[in-house]
Write a structure and sequence with these properties.
Elements (H helix, E strand, L loop, with lengths): L12 H9 L3 H15 L19 E6 L6 E6 L3 H12 L3 H6 L10 H15 L6 E5 L5 H16 L3 E5 H13 L4 H7 L3 E5 L12 H16 L4 E5 L3 H7 L1 H11 L3 E4 L7 E3 L5 E3 L2
Helix pairs in contact: 5-6, 8-9, 9-11, 10-11
The protein binds zinc ion (ZN).
The site of zinc ion (ZN) has 5 residues, from loops.
Length: about 280
């Protein structure tokens, strides 16, 4: 068959000129594919992370020059790990709190708060199987620090985390167990990282129901045996926890291996931020 000459076609002169400029059509084709891929915007993923390079996809196309003909390969964009972290935090409902509860924004006005912050950071740098527990009086910033530690662990270790606010979560688990489903309990028990907030919430003089103790044991024993990292906050002091259930307290103490604070009730340890951000002290 006779070879066609594009100049014979009725094409606008600027297109003919462009075609003539293409010295390497294979490269030009791949380059076009790469540019098309990179220009394609992703649907908003709710992370609020904008990226001009990948247009929110988290992946970007490049040309490999070391093959003939050159090929397009898809690589993670520089924004990808930040995006994954934000998606993981969003999934467990922690994305908004992650923005305010950081180590940087934690006020260390007292020696206790300094110690608590150091401990949370030590936990973060420690073995990935270690637990972190803040026990005792409310108002010292336990939730703030536990959240900061949780967020940093999700980001640094690229782990999927679960957040479990004890009382409502336990109510949900009980009703799902009543209907024969273990999925919710398993979801918390098996999470690569778990943050149990306000364990055994309630007045110190009101006994914890046996069913709650059994659930806590099942959950924490599972994680203890598999060395799954766990963060705990509770208004009960550690001796109160030990009084409630020695087996639970023993497992917490062993896995925390020093990363545990028990704040005894007493004056001067409580601080609250008022709406205007002023720190008030007392009681
Ligand atoms: Zn990107």
């Amino acid at each position: 068959m006779e070879k066609m000459d594009v100049s014979d076609w009725f094409l606008p002169p600027q297109v003919l000129e462009r075609i003539a400029q293409i010295k390497d059509p294979e490269h030009w084709l791949v380059e076009n594919k790469v540019n098309t891929y990179n220009a394609l915007p992703a649907d908003p993923d709710g992370t609020g992370i904008e990226c001009e390079v990948c247009r929110g996809k988290g992946m970007m196309a490049v040309i490999t020059e070391d093959t003939a003909p050159p090929r397009m390969v898809i690589l993670p964009c520089a924004c990808r790990s930040r995006r994954m972290t934000a998606l993981r935090l969003k999934r467990c409902g922690m994305l908004e709190r992650a923005k305010t509860c950081t180590f940087e924004s934690f006020r260390t006005d007292t020696a206790l708060q300094k110690r608590m912050k150091e401990l949370a950071q030590r936990w973060l740098d420690g073995a990935p199987t270690q637990w972190l527990a803040f026990c005792g009086q409310s108002g010292a910033g336990k939730t703030h620090l536990c959240t900061a530690a949780f967020v940093q662990a999700v980001a640094r270790r690229q782990l999927a985390g679960e957040y479990m606010l004890w009382s409502p979560a336990v109510r949900e688990i009980k009703s799902s167990l009543f209907e024969g489903g273990r999925d919710l309990l398993d979801q918390y028990a098996q999470a690569p990282l778990l943050y149990v907030d306000d364990l055994f919430k309630g007045r110190g003089d009101v006994p914890v129901p046996d069913t709650d103790l059994r659930l806590a044991f099942e959950l924490l024993d599972y994680r203890y045996n598999r060395q799954l990292p766990t963060i705990l906050s509770t208004e009960r002091t550690f001796p109160q926890l030990a009084d409630l259930d020695e087996a639970i307290a023993g497992r917490i103490r062993e896995r925390c291996a020093g990363c545990i604070v028990s704040i005894a009730p007493g004056a001067g340890k409580n601080y609250r931020f008022r709406d205007e951000g002023e720190v008030t002290r007392g009681q």
